[in-house]
Design a protein that fits this description.
Elements: H1 2-18, H2 39-46, H3 69-76, E1 84-85, E2 96-101, H4 108-124, E3 128-131, E4 140-144, E5 150-152, E6 161-166, H5 178-188, H6 200-203, E7 204-206, E8 227-228, E9 255-257, H7 274-284, H8 303-306
Parallel strand pairs: 2-3, 2-4, 4-6
Antiparallel strand pairs: 1-8, 5-6, 7-9
Helix pairs in contact: 4-5
The chain binds zinc ion.
Zinc ion binds near residues 63 and 193.
């Protein structure tokens, strides 16, 4: 009788572990993964210039990516990387992304700007950012403003709540640039930084001796078996690209383009590029047929979506 009981318990544990219903790490609490920001960054965040990116100054991995040390080790344990997640376990089923905003952290204008970022992504993809309903959704994004800088996990963590932080600021400053909000939402739906791409060394030179000591991880790459560019070329103009002087010791370039920029600006935060939109649609929308979803045609002008 006892042996039968143990056998049942054993089977139950196997099933439980298989469907990931057991706590898998000390990072089940999404707030426990967020690192404290450095005093230098805290100071810089107070006096951001018009071209400064708050996401570089947020004290997380690569500036604004919330990852456990185990995930960082996995990320760096390969020579190659692309920029979007392959594993469906990290994607949002059906492109439905439940989110809620801690409204007491923000002004009404800031709350509506966060929604505007989500709406802008909906305009050009099949993604749908919906209000979190605990009766319907298991996993969801909580947008907070209480943390330092801006940051997000990459993809759906699958552990219930996950944090996306946007430190309050005037609209179009710091974390409240519309396309910094979109940058963080793009992390949350599964995209890494463009300069980490597998093929980046064909497109940019990383000037290692100009990078601030201790920030080299910002230029690390990830396993090509884990991520995909969805068949879209390297993109200097991506909203996920960092500027050429990122993490520089003296303001000189740390990322030098090796090919013609074709009018693109590395590190821009004024629009989703055509390739950003293509990658999002390739990741989430290639099997979606809906007349309500704008058709993204690489041969046509997308200007209307960017304004
Ligand atoms: Zn980022």
């Amino acid at each position: 009788m006892m042996a039968k009981c143990f056998f049942k318990l054993f089977i139950a544990l196997i099933i439980c572990a298989t469907i990931e219903c057991l706590p898998t790490s000390e990072y089940e609490d999404p707030r426990a993964m967020i690192k404290a920001n450095t005093p230098e960054n805290l100071e810089k965040l107070k006096t951001l210039g018009p071209n400064d990116l708050a996401e570089e100054l947020s004290g997380q991995y690569q500036g604004d990516i919330v990852m456990s040390p185990e995930e960082v080790a996995e990320y760096e344990n390969s020579r190659n990387t692309k920029t979007g997640l392959i594993a469906t376990r990290y994607s949002w089923a059906g492109g439905i992304v439940p989110y809620r905003i801690v409204e007491s952290d923000f002004t009404l204008d800031q709350v509506s700007y966060i929604h505007r970022g989500a709406r802008r992504m909906e305009e050009v993809t099949c993604l749908r950012f919906v209000p979190y309903d605990p009766k319907v959704h298991n996993d969801f994004i909580t947008v907070t403003g209480s943390g330092s800088g801006c940051f997000s996990s990459v993809g759906r963590r699958g552990t219930g709540e996950q944090i996306l932080n946007l430190q309050p600021n005037n609209l179009e400053v710091g974390c409240f640039r519309l396309h910094t909000i979109i940058h963080e939402f793009m992390h949350a739906v599964g995209f890494y930084h463009m300069q980490s791409a597998a093929e980046r060394d064909e497109w940019v030179e990383i000037v290692w001796d100009k990078i601030q000591a201790g920030t080299e991880g910002n230029f690390a790459k990830q396993s090509e078996t884990v991520v995909s560019n969805y068949g879209v070329d390297y993109d200097y103009g991506s909203v996920m690209h960092y500027p050429s002087v990122s993490f520089s010791i003296d303001g000189s370039p740390t990322i030098i383009p090796l090919k013609d920029l074709n009018g693109e600006t590395m590190g821009q935060r004024v629009r989703m590029s055509e390739k950003d939109i293509l990658r999002l649609n390739s990741a989430y929308c290639s099997d979606v047929v809906s007349t309500e979803v704008p058709i993204v045609n690489p041969g046509s002008s997308h200007t209307a979506y960017f304004t």
